[in-house]
Predict the 3D structure of the following.
Amino acid sequence: MTRESSNQIKSKYTLIETSELIAKLQQERDVEERANWIRALGERIEPEVIKLLWDLRNNMENEDPFVQYEVKLSLHKVTNHSSVGIDMFLENLSVFQTNKKVFQGPKILIDSNILEEFLLRNKTTMNQDVTKVVEWVLSEKINPYVGKNGVENLWSRVKNLRGQEYANRLIIEILSQFQVCDIDLQEIDMEKYPTVNIPTVIQVECAKKYNLDGIITLRDRDFVSSGWPYVYSPALFLEYVESEYSDLSPEFFKEELAQKFIDQKREKLSINWKEEPLKNNISFEDKLLLFQGWKIKKFEVLCTKKDLTSATVILQDKFGKKYHTESGFKRGSINALFTAFDKALSHIVEIEHELKSIYIANLTPGKEGAVTAMVVVRYGEEEVIRIYSHENIIKAYLFAYVKAIIAVYAPNEYPQDIYEEKELMSLYKIGMRDFRKLNFSKVDLSDNEANLSESILIGCNFSNANLSGANLTKTDLTRANLSNANLSQANLSNANLTGVELDKNNQTLFEGTILTNTIMPEIKIALSGRSRIDKVVQLLEQIDIQKSGCRLLAVHSMTTPTWWHSDLGMYFWEVTKKILQKGILIKRVFILPESPTQVHLQVLREQAEVGVEVRYICCTNAKNVDNHDLHNTNVMIYENSLVERNSFTTRMLINEDRENGYISYQQIDLKTDKELFSYIWKKSSIWKQAEFPNFPEQIIPHEFLNK
């Protein structure tokens, strides 16, 4: 279609009301006219138009390909428009939910975290159960509901990750499948929920307001103190609907499911317990202290071969007079045990924490067969992480959880938990794990194959630790305490050291440590002479030959050419040639005396011949370069454009009686030295061998340099 005809069509339909456009489209059977009506609707950003285009998109089997194309194009226009967002959808629920089907099955509130897991995660173990729940939602056997706040949060996350159009299309689909429920906070008596967080209260009150039959959520522990029993994890819901006892009739599901299902499973547990008591019952008598004088008197786990578990926890006060006994029945022993513990704990404190993750890491062979469990608990905006090693896996899990609970509710009652080598050794080989904020002060892994690669070690305490030779590649050590740590020969390639705490002299990272593409802290090390050259050579030899975008910028004051022919100068020159062979760009300005000799020029010629971009300037001219006296400058800057915080600068400072120097990763030093290099590079002359006659004398007249 030409631009003119397209504009004519737009003009033709401009004055027609949207309702009339929709009516004419629904009556029109001519392919070209239908395409014109649809194209015109694509210019209208109205809820009714978006809903119509979405319905057309879902029923295009009998449409002409030309009409199908116009439907897709118009839908793209309206869903990608900046004014179309979550507010429009929620303000026009009556439009987007007009065709919502109602089934004979129970009414279930699906927590938005179920949908988030389904849409935004890979097929993990958790995601497999979530996927099955979503399949049941779409099976037309239950009536799915979703909270208004959950829809808003889901739209925002998806928009940030995949863009506005994707998020808008997703919400349209959700509104076509789910009934949105909402409640005014002013309608809720918060005094009835003293130990329940606000999002959980809203969901419970929505379930009551809309007379729902249950809630499926990944946060089922948050509902422990709500008093509303019809809450199911994805695993528990699937256990029921996939069992022989499944009955989804509304009159059965809500009132009888929880009690009848649990009774049936408990009866089955009891039978298995009588048959194999020694194999299925684990009872512990450890008197593990909590806080406020309370302790765990006893806990018991009763399970079957099919992972159906009942757990009981008994808490006792310090006088032995008060007890809180609670039980949990869940799929999985740890799930049941933590549920029972949370119920008992709710009698002592208001539950304000959320369990984020738990996992186990086996010790290496020969470590007495013990295991180490790690627990991550969220408390407000903070995350508390604790680990515990024990020969029994359930004890390891529970005691790690209890240590995290103590850190949340009574951080001052006990001294800070100190982790020794045993805990770290149980974790060091697994990689890709989150150990943030753990205390590994004074650990000694120097005699072990310490592989902590790809671990998250944010905020960990490694002060005075011996990590000599450790593999710390790709680790995130942001804000970690490395003061007085021994990292000699350790590999910190691609690690993140932003904001780490070092010892006063900042020597921690300069004893043979590999720092290839490492995100470095802002440190500055005072080094001179051979020691400085050795450290610079060590860093240069680590340059990743697979990476581009690296270059060396240098200024060398050559009042005497003897340094380059000394043992130290020749040593550095050999390394420079190796760097050139890797394809690294080197630019060097030589500051020459007023009357340079052939020996001076020989140094320039040798470097230019192997690929160094050589320039030169007379020392007299270098005394005033943009108001800077640079005639005595000796500086080298290593720039890594791919990992900027791996760049450094080094200087040799020559005073009257001694030489000083440094290696610096500080941004201010890098900025200053790069500016100085830029000044002198612009003022210097390009080295051209042909311009220098081969004088028989040893001295080149200074007039030639100043011409």
Summary: The longest strand covers residues 353-362. The mean pLDDT is 79.
